[in-house]
Amino acid sequence: NRQFEVHYQPVIDLRTGRITKAEALLRWCHPEHGYISPLEFIPLAEETGLINKIGDWVFRQSTANAKHWSDRFTDNFQVSINLSPRQFKLDNHLFISEWESYLQGIGLAGDNVVVEITEGLLLNAEPDVIDKLLWLRDAGIQVAIDDFGTGYSSLSYLNKFDIDYLKIDKSFVSNLENSTNDTALCDAIILMAHTLGLKVIAEGVETGKQKQILVDSGCDFAQGYHFSRAVPADEFEALLNPESESVQPARTSRKS
Ligand code: C2E
Ligand code: CA
Ligand code: CA
Hints:
By secondary structure, this protein is α/β, with parallel strands linked by helices. 41% of the residues lie in helices and 21% in strands.
């Protein structure tokens, strides 16, 4: 019924303060219930297998927007897309066979795209998972580990697979101001990532103080309500536009 919409949350380069990426976040705009969170319907879509079609739609929608924004604003603009483990299963043909040629068709380079996966997928990586990860690498698409630090404690997969970004989970970021332990954890994650040649994105940054602690720790990128919520494509484009007064930092941040 055309009730899905992709919203975009700006990701800020902490060295320059500019928006260089966006995370694509799916919204179901229900005529009666309003916006329904993906947390409510993604698990069901995974269970039924519908996630393959939905995920394919999200990929096409958000890469088409990324093409427009990379042409209009900055060449190295990246859109970051969440993938469910289910999408790496053998029965998902959409993914493997069609995305690379879709990107070629719209004229977007693979390195304008990042996929976000969770640690769990890599821990018990079966051959079909590994095949798809290799395919992503061959297409030049980058890989981010989402919710880093909340899952398993095995780190060996970081060396085994070609990973580009670690995303520090918001549960660590939200404690940065009152817990020296969480500050130490963030410091350690950033140091480890940089030593391995990975970049770090902090998520759930809600205050100026959290942002400053992350800047001081050498974190590369940040996203969160301090900068902006996820917004519809046209509003996101206004944030990217240098003429727009709300670019840096955006929207909710004036107070802090
Ligand atoms: P996620 O990937 O961890 O996405 C971050 C979630 O945190 C988003 O919730 C975002 O709106 C929210 N968030 C952003 N900044 C802040 C902040 O400063 N504070 C707080 N408290 N929250 C913040 P959202 O959009 O409800 O998405 C929930 C989850 O649904 C996502 O978690 C992701 O796992 C999943 N999801 C969203 N879109 C897709 C999709 O297209 N495909 C798949 N497979 N999963 C998706
Ligand atoms: Ca994510
Ligand atoms: Ca996350």
